[in-house]
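We examine the record.

___
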Amino acid sequence: MPSELIKARRILVTDDDPILCGIIAAALEDDGFVVDMAFDGEKAWEILVHRHYDLLVTDNEMPRLTGMELVERVRNAGLGLPVIVASGSLSLRRASDYPPLQIAAVIPKPFALLEVLNTVRNVLPD
């Protein structure tokens, strides 16, 4: 009887700081996820309309399209993937002021990588 293959979950990480984006992506890949990166909200949107993701992790303050604007587009397009916003300018309380955006979690910047990993694991349980 063939063993079932476990399909790795796909995550899109979006941040206008390429170094931070790469660090987050590497940590998630080390944890077994398949990760793509975008360095602004508009590029993230272009990627999201062409590929399926299980999770979006996004900064809020970005050029061309903020994280909140990106999440609004995602929801308006009917995409139900969970979203984690990592931001120095957006609190969970403020994010909850926008219930239609269904933000799963807000991670305040600066953060520890373990906090990101734990939040992702909580949002995408096994």
